[in-house]
Amino acid sequence: MRTLLFLFLFCILSFLRANQKDSLFAKLNCSELNPIALNLALQAHERFYDTFHVKDTISIIDFSKTSDKKRLFVIDLKHQTILFSEITTHGANSGLEKATKFSNRVNSHKSSLGCFKTAEYDISKTHDTVLILDGLEWGINHNARKREIVIHRSELAKTIACQYCSYEYIDSLGYNGQSFGCPVLRREVYKDIMHAIAGGSMLFAYAEDEEYKRRTILKVE
Question: Is the pTM of this model over 0.70?
Answer without folding.
Answer: yes
